[in-house]
Known about the structure:
Layout: E1 2-10, E2 16-23, E3 27-32, E4 49-53, H1 67-74, H2 87-99, H3 107-114, E5 118-123, H4 143-155, E6 158-161, H5 166-173, E7 179-182, E8 187-189, E9 206-210, H6 217-230, E10 238-241, E11 246-249, H7 258-269, E12 275-280, E13 283-288, H8 294-305, E14 313-319, H9 325-334, E15 338-342, E16 353-355, H10 358-372
Parallel strand pairs: 5-6, 5-14, 6-7, 14-15, 15-16
Antiparallel strand pairs: 1-2, 1-9, 2-3, 3-4, 7-8, 8-9, 10-11, 11-13, 12-13
Helix pairs in contact: 4-10, 6-7, 8-9
Amino acid sequence: MTNQNVVISNSESGINMSITVAVSNSSIFATTAQKPPPAPGGCGGGGGYISISRTKILKDLDVNGGWIESMRASSPTHVKSLSSLSAADDHHHNSWTLHHPSALDMFDQIIEASKGKQIVMFLDYDGTLSPIVEDPDKAFMSEAMRKTVKKLASCFPTAIVSGRCRDKVYGFIQLSELYYAGSHGMDIKGPTKSSKSEVVLFQDNKSLLFQPASEFLPMIDEVYQKLVEKIKSTPGAKVENNKFCISVHFRCVDEKQWNNLAQEVKSVVKDYPKLRLTQGRKVLEIRPTIKWDKGKALEFLLEALGYANCSDVFPIYIGDDRTDEDAFKVLRERDQGFGILVSKVPKDTHASYSVREPSEVMQFLQRLVQWKRPPLLRRHCRV
C-alpha cells in the first residue's frame, strides 16, 4: 500500500494542509487527519472519508477483438446521415431516442426533477464543449461556449472532467472558477472559492489539489518516450502525454493500419503490468491500474463539495465518450441527477438523455442559466 496526499494549499501563506490517500490493490481511501469516517446518511459535515471498493482491474484491450468495428461505427466517414437511414435503422434510432430522449425536449421535466436540490454540473471537454477535430491540439471551444460555461459556473458548481492533461484543458477553457479533473480524474484541482465541505475546507485563499496516482509519473513518462519512438513509422498517429495517462490518437491514421498500431502500443504496455490499455473515441489510452475513473472523480468532487451522502443534490454529467460511461453509471447507481450523452447516433449508454452535438450542449447550458437567473432574480447568482 502506498500513500498519496491531497494537498489544500494556501497561496498567500504557503501553508499546505493535506489529506492522506492510501492506494492498495483492493481499494482507495482518502481521509482527513484525526477525523473519523462520517456516519452513514451524513450530509457534508463530519470527517472526510472516501472508501472506493475495487472489484477487478479492467483487462488489457483485445486488439484482435471487435474494437475496430466499434471504431468504424464512430467514424464520421462511416456514420450514416439521417436522410440515408433504412427503415430498420430508422426504427432502431426511434427506439433509442425513446429511451434516451433529447435533453432539450425534456428540459422542463429535468428542471422539475431538480426542484429543491442543488444542481452540480460535470462536463467532458472534447466532443462536448468543443467539436472533435483531427488535431487534438486544435480542439478549441468557441467564445460563445466559453461565455456560456462562465455564466453556468456563476450559478452552479461546475467541473470539467476530461481524459486530457489538466493544464491543457485549462489552457483551452481559461476559466479559473471551474473545477478541473484531468487525466480521467487522476489530477483534480479546485477553484479558489468557499465550500461547506469539511473534506476540502475551501476558504477565500485556498484550493484543492488531488493526485491519487502520483507514484506512476516516472513510469508514464518512460512509456510515453517509448511510444513516441515506436509509432514513428505510423503516419498520422499522435502520442499525447496527459501527465497521469497517455493517449495514442489514430483519427488521422489509415484504417488499414489501426490494428498494426494497436499491436505496437500493446507491445510496449505489456512490459508494464501496473498500466492498462483502454479504448476511447479514436484513441488508445494507457492508464495506471488503480481503480480511478471519471465516475470516481465525480464522486470525489461531490464529497469535496459536501454532497457525498446528501439527498438534496442533483448532479448532471454531459459527455460523448465511452470513458464518460463510468460517470453515467455512477449517477444511475446513486439514483441522483442525470447523464446526458452527446451523440448523433444510437449507442449503448447509461445516460438518461441525449443531445446531438456541442451546439446543443450549449443550448442546454444556456437554458439552465436562464432558468436559474431570470432578469428579476439575477442577484441570486454569484457575480
